[in-house]
Amino acid sequence: TSDPYVKFKLGGKEVFRSKTIHKNLNPVWEEKACILIDNPREPLYIKVFDYDFGLQDDFIGSAFLDLTSLELNRQTDVTLSLKDSHYPDHDLGSILLSVLLTPREEQREVVISNTLIRVITLVINNYDVLPNMPSRTGNLWHRIYSPSSCVLMTLFCVSSNQNHETFQTQSLRLSDLHRKSQLWRGIVSITLIEGRELKAMDANGLSDPYVKFRLGHQKYKSKIMPKTLNPQWREQFDFHLYEERGGIIDITVWDKDAGKRDDFIGRCQVDLSNLSKEHTHKLEMPLEEGEGCLVLLVTLTASAAVTISDLSLNSLEDQKEREEILKRYSLMAMFHNMKDVGFLQVKVIRAEALMAADVTGKDSFSKSDPFCVVELNNDRLLTHTVYKNLNPEWNKVFTFNIKDIHSVLEVTVYDEDRDRSADFLGKVAIPLLSIQNGEQKAYVLKNKQLTGPTKGVIYLEIDVIFNAVKASIRTLMPKEQKYIEEENRLSKQLLVRNFIRTKRCIMVLINAAYYISSCFDWDSPPRSLAAFLLFLFVVWNFELYMIPLALLLLLAWNYFLIISGKDNRQHDTVVEDMLEDEEEEDDRDDKDSEKKGFMNRLYAIQEVCVSVQNILDEVASFGERIKNTFNWTVPFLSCLAIVALFVFTIILYFIPLRYIVLVWGINKFTKKLRNPYVIDNNELLDFLSRVPSDVQLMQYHELKQDPSHSPSKRKKNNPG
């Protein structure tokens, strides 16, 4: 069987997506959608997919509906045969639509109402009929073209009450009505607590369970709990809620197996329409097709202020709105809504001299169809597409709520390609704490690894307003995990890079040990004498409060060196060179991936090597983050460290150690009694996770624009 659903596209943008009908080759949808049409001569593109949880959805077939063949004000039943350009001779089934085309006099627009009735003969099983069918719709395409992200069209929903139909506007076209568009209606906060009596999948009578969640195209994967049938995860994450009536969260539980495919343990679903809002629900979900149950906490909350608007209409230029935003994040409101740390406004103005991704025509006419994706953690919005242009102007304003001031704003430019995943044109990553408010800047676009420049620049104007107290408290809490991340793979250059980084951190400790040993050996009598006197003085007068005091003095000393112009921070050319080598290896791997099949045969060895590679990265990053804290790489974090060390010094000076240990022990022993579902965290590790490593510093480094490429020269050479 298949789990089919249908996408409708106009001009390359998704304007409607049907619900998924599970395990059915003849699905009946009976859904309605009302879509504004800008150009009736542009056909409506219809694509059918097979939903695969945890995997990329399989493409079943597609068809085009010629709108010019329809009569106005007359409902027409249309049967379209599904086709695949790669398999033109295959019968992929057909789809039946009831279509009504009517004019809208008040806006001089054309409206098309599609009622998805049923697929007549969807006789396809992807694995039997088309075992080698290539997938042309990548994960990136699914990420960007979600129904909630489409801002080019006006989408209406039709609710039927017997013979009465009520049209409700879900989002408004900003170019016509100059109003802001709310992109999602709410947030689903999920806490995965534990599993109980799960099915044993391994020979030792245990399992290594993990959980996958999916709401629409949003996905989350929990950590793996080794060798247990009663795992304790205690992980918290959020999904965006796009539908007024809620939605269904698909949950599957898997057993991790090294060297072979993971075993399926069971599944369950959470229907959000049955849950009340602004209330935390404790759910014990029994697993279907398996044993045991999952314990979850689910909370539905109102939507955060994430919007898209035209450049002529933005919050910070409205004096009244600006005052309200400043008041919301003032020090007086420091204890109100601790999750709402700040406000971010991004103006995506234009780009220049982009890479030409499409070459068409007899004269090899080069062009691109660029659009821009703006990401802040798991919030992802996009601009419209500017067709056949290498110097596009978008003039859009995006607003986000900031949950963590240490987040990084990512702006990526893609070239739109129909029927294929979008082509990458360039990317920039901007830490929020490095932003200068109200300044329009030209950012040089970088490659996918953010290690070097690619062609083109993008002009942005960014404003950040945040509450410093909330931001400081949030720093000591677990960092939000990105739902969509590239899977780790084995790379020789990456393995070597992480080994060298780890070696450099270890060498610091070894050199310190050699230095101390040389003092004991009296290699330099003056130095050994000074060290001996210092040792006697410190040991005789040592108190516990001197440990944070010494760290505090080290921070102050490094700050003094920086302001006096004696900055001891060096540009890490070694990491930069290794990143460039890694990028070249990535390019070679992409070209030769089909030829190298040995990685699949040695999957288990690869997984072990990837684990070693990741462990080396974690160890090296830990050492680099400690160094960068004391080097004032991020002044906000270094100031926060000074405050914390000062408080610890005062506490240790005035309060006996046994009282401090007593309070710490009581808190640890009673934490689960006071709150059984509390998520454990280590404040020190959470703090260090916000400090960038040397690799991240290289990726966030802002490149200077090449003065030899002026905008005027680019425009002369640009046919678009």
UniProtKB/TrEMBL annotation:
PROSITE patterns: C2 (PS50004)
Parts of the chain that traverse the membrane: 529-560, 634-655
Subcellular location: Cytoplasmic vesicle, Secretory vesicle, Synaptic vesicle membrane; Endoplasmic reticulum membrane; Recycling endosome
Pfam family, one: C2
Xref: InterPro entries: C2_dom (IPR000008), C2_domain_sf (IPR035892), MCTP_C (IPR013583)
Gene Ontology molecular functions: calcium ion binding
Keyword tags: Calcium, Cytoplasmic vesicle, Endoplasmic reticulum, Endosome, Membrane, Metal-binding, Repeat, Synapse, Transmembrane, Transmembrane helix
Listed CDD domains: C2A_MCTP_PRT, C2B_MCTP_PRT, C2C_MCTP_PRT
Domain of life of the native organism: Eukaryota
Biological-process GO terms, alphabetical: regulation of neurotransmitter secretion
Residue ranges of domain C2 in the record: 1-80, 168-285, 319-445
Record GO cellular component, one term: endoplasmic reticulum membrane
Topology with respect to the bilayer: Multi-pass membrane protein
Predominant cellular place of this UniProt entry's protein: membrane
UniProt similarity note: Belongs to the MCTP family.
The protein's name: Multiple C2 and transmembrane domain-containing protein 1
Name of the gene encoding the protein in the UniProt record: Mctp1
